[in-house]
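Hey team,

Filing this mostly as a record. A colleague (T.K.) asked me to run one chain through the structure pipeline before their review meeting, and I want the input and output archived in the tracker in case anyone asks later how it was produced. No errors, nothing strange. Just documentation.

Input sequence:
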Amino acid sequence: MITRWLEGVSCIDNFPDPEVELYFLNRGCWRRICGVGPHHHIRCTLLSQAFVNGAVHWFGCDKVAASDISILTFDMSSEVFCEMKLPTGLENEWVVAHLAVSVLRESLCPCHFDSLVSKVSIWVMKEYGVVQSRTKLFTFDLGSDFGGILGFRRNGDLLFLRKNRMFSINLESQQVKDLRIRKSGKLKSLYVDTYMESLVFL
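Output structure:
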């Protein structure tokens, strides 16, 4: 299934309730979900999301208090939105662009970029849904030209942007490798996602 919602914008501090729809690959059609719209606004320019434990995860800010940021989840089975608190130490973070959410070895993995000191911190939720199980794995410096986190490879290496090019870093040795994949000038021109084979169309 694919999730999408449309948001109307009347002013910066007033986001109307979105229309939420699911696309079913086996049926080839969209179905609108009524009365379950999220209470958060997701910045469409960030496009940081993760699918783990049967739910999609994004970072979002409260529609009334834009500085109130949390992890928004949508369970594909129950079709219900929920939210998770930020990891300890990020409660005062108010810039959504400094945050990313990904999956590391089937565990939810929030990431944070501190622009003041050019450092990236990575947490992992060892037991899904249990806030106390989140621990900080690594903190390292990727330089002032760091352009954003893209996700993780199957071997655990972190993929990120630097000067419009994709790099990987081994979290243990912190060895950086240029993957020679270049991003175009457009903001949304480069994505990373998990490829999974499916027989749904056969």
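Quick notes for T.K.: The radius of gyration is 17 Å. Residues 7-13 have pLDDT under 50 and may be disordered.
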